[in-house]
Amino acid sequence: MVVIVSDAASLEFRTSRSATGGRNSGHGGSGGISSDLLISSTRLGRGILLNSRAVLFGQFVMFQTSLNDVVEIYDGPTQQNTLLSSLSGSHSGESLPLSSGNQVTVKFSTVGPETAKGFHFVYQAVPRTSSTQCSSVPEPRFGKRLGNDFAVGSMVQFECNPGYVLHGSTAIRCESVLDNMAQWNDTLPTCIVPCGGALTARRGTILSPGYPEPYDNNQNCVWKVSVPEGAGIQIQVVSFATEHNWDSLDFYDGSDNHAPRLGSYSAYKMLATRPPAKCAIRDTLV
């Protein structure tokens, strides 16, 4: 779901049903599984070929497992190497520390009958650091990097695409480490979609949580959009698909859901009927 807001209002987005039932049940391990993937410079087992002079940057675009189902990432070719991350449950935009070499191992273990949507992991090979140069910095997914100087003392900044917010540091600095390689002073940020919020700019974009991945069940997200007094708010829905009769998108002409309702939409109705853009009479919309 993508909503673009021009000179703005208040907006409510709901989902229902549990994660273990209905349309969002995923591919967790009924009965339990354990699998691992080696990401490496050589083809070993299910390895992926990467440049031996590179290190790895990894990020979970989406992550939702049962609390007993765990994803572990090791800094090397075996599970005896340092554990970089161990995750279960629900997370948004988790990024990993850069690996020390060109190999990491990803292990996914499940137990019991419960399932969830699973995870979406992406990785990128970046040049290895030196004593005067930090490793190159990938652009965050759904965002961009500002700055191309990776020498000691330099700084790079990050921005997110419309509708996303930055999770982590807005800027990181390359620092010299005594008797070691140069390194960044913080982990790389990620761009995520929040569930609700306040928008005050004259133009803005609202996305469903996790977009473009499917949203989770049992959410109640409210966005309050306010513009200078005297201005109206026009809304254009660019993309819309929800589960009919369960998940709805409601527009209210005021600061809360007690204000007059401009419309309530579910399933593909908005795309099928192509309604005209809604204009709020007031300068605040929910």
From TrEMBL:
CDD domains: CCP (cd00033), CUB (cd00041)
Pfam families xref list: CUB (PF00431), Sushi (PF00084)
Keyword Repeat attached: yes
Record flagged with keyword Disulfide bond: yes
Taxonomic superkingdom: Eukaryota
Residue ranges of every copy of the Sushi domain listed in the record: 132-193
Stored PROSITE patterns: CUB, SUSHI
Keyword list, A-Z: Disulfide bond, Repeat, Sushi
Domain CUB, chain residue ranges per copy: 195-286
SUPFAM superfamilies in the record: Complement control module/SCR domain, Spermadhesin, CUB domain
Coiled-coil positions: none
Protein name: CUB and sushi domain-containing protein 3-like
Upper taxonomic lineage: Eukaryota, Metazoa, Chordata, Craniata, Vertebrata
Gene name as annotated: LOC104950134
